[in-house]
Design goal:
Blueprint lengths: L2 E3 L20 E3 L4 E3 L19 E3 L5 H17 L13 H4 L12
Antiparallel strand pairs: 1-4, 2-3
Amino acid sequence: MAFVVTEKCIMCKHTNCVSVCPVDCFHEGPNFLAINTDECIDCGLCAPECPVSAIQSDDALPEEQRRHYLLLNRELAQAWPNISEIKSPLPDAEKWANVESKLHLLQR
């Protein structure tokens, strides 16, 4: 079991979660964060820190979403640099916070 970042993070990219991660498993892309699911120790500290509830336990997701987000997070974490310090969210984060179906906006 691991935690994953879901599409709610897209276009927001709040980084409150990275400062509480004891194993520094977050990776930063242009408009999304990803968790290295192989390094995540399932502590759950990151999830309540996300103001848009983008971080979920993989076992709390429906099976299709679970597989998709595990693979997506794993792939992007391998490609993107590690992040361990808080940064400002994206400029329009508030505008995008409650927008649904943002996966097509993910920048790799």
